[in-house]
Amino acid sequence: MSELLGFVPSFSKLRGKPNDDWIDRMSHVYTVVVLVIFTVLVSSGQFFKDPIQCWHPAEFKDSMESYTKWNCWVKNTYYVPMSDIIPEDISDRQEAEITYYQWVPLILLFQAFLFKFPNMIWRIFNGGSGLNLDKVVRFAEKTQLVSPADRDDTINSLARFMDKWLDSNKEHRWNVVVRTKHQISRFMCFFCNKRAGKYLTAMYLFVKVLYVANAIGQLFLLNAFMSTSFNFYGFEFLDNLNSDRPWRESPRFPRVTLCDFQIRQLQNIQRFTVQCVLPINLFNEKVFIFIWFWLIFIAVLACINLFRWLYLIVFAKNKIDYIKKYLKINNELHTNFDKKMCTRFAENYLRDDGVFVLRLVAKNSTDIVVTDLVRDLWKIFKEKQSTKKNELEPTENNFDDAKEKEPLT
């Protein structure tokens, strides 16, 4: 369970893996913990207490009382308000059945799994980029706890490692197929092209979409599970609070229900209708009120977070401005040529995945670490540019040596 949920019995571990942001952890860590706690509480009420009590006829003996109670618990009960007449038609009674209360612990556990599922997808597939995000972020975070000299050496080593990773993910051949893939990746960031430097960003955006779909979809999923208009449950709760009427029993979580059962005596079949009380629904009502508002809260956060990351990733100017901010802190931009080099540094060297890793490091450590990391990556980039320039442009001495070696005609 600890491996599935991403935490062990220690409060310090509730933060989760440092490969996403805090809004993601609101879904796959904190929400999962809350749902598991609710599952334990509801289960204890069902298994260690009497989940249902029924009012039975006076002629029932002890064995018949026990049979009635457990039969009505296993079998669905139905709800008819005290002011209404019990329907004569059996089909009308079946339409009013409450079908969920036995399955509330499993429903809550299934919800917890759905909240964890997007993070499981992210943890499984982000390694396809060739970079272990967890170790990179933790490595960068630990630099804050060492001496300045060790810190500079550690960040420089991390920069060299990232340089090798960026270089290994570049396309070293160029043909029609590669050019087409790059063009598609340029205009469609959801096209996972590892060589185009968009694998991590596209996968992360896909996971963000899963978080949004999960939070919104669970409202409709609970509506299907509970066979009630759960989508409007919170609005009805608020309306009840604002009215002058006293708190009334919710038809979705009734405390007093009716139960029909038949007893066969030889060839005679006797039908009984008894009135039962469900104490567990008093707790279920409060749990699902909280879950409704929590799902709305998580859905709003997830939507805002998705659109924010879309804005940061899709528009290339945001990527350049992000890197330019740290280069200005390092006092590396002095001329227009430096600004042009900054654009090449962000678009051609770091690309989307490199900038994305820097953003994750900043979110899980500090901007100071990212400032030093960008400084070292900038130095590596300039060294490569100067080396490439020397290889492409021979010096005058090399040109004179070449002339001397020419044969006389």
UniProtKB/TrEMBL annotation:
Classify the protein's membrane topology as the record does. Answer: Multi-pass membrane protein
Q: Where is the composition biased (Basic and acidic residues)?
A: 400-409
Residues spanning the membrane: 29-48, 203-226, 287-315
Keyword Iron-sulfur among UniProt keywords: no
- Pfam families given in the database record: Innexin (PF00876)
Q: Where in the cell is it found?
A: Cell membrane
- Where is the stretch described as Disordered? 387-409
Q: Which UniProt keywords apply?
A: Cell membrane, Ion channel, Ion transport, Membrane, Transmembrane, Transmembrane helix, Transport
**Main location per the UniProt record:** membrane
Q: Does the keyword Membrane apply?
A: yes
Q: Quote the cellular component terms of the Gene Ontology held in the record.
A: gap junction; plasma membrane
In terms of InterPro entries, this protein maps to: Innexin
Q: One biological process GO term for this chain?
A: monoatomic ion transmembrane transport
Family classification: Belongs to the pannexin family.
PANTHER family attached to this UniProt entry: INNEXIN (PTHR11893), INNEXIN-5 (PTHR11893:SF36)
Q: What does this protein do?
A: Structural component of the gap junctions.
- The protein depicted here goes by the name Innexin
**Gene name?**
inx
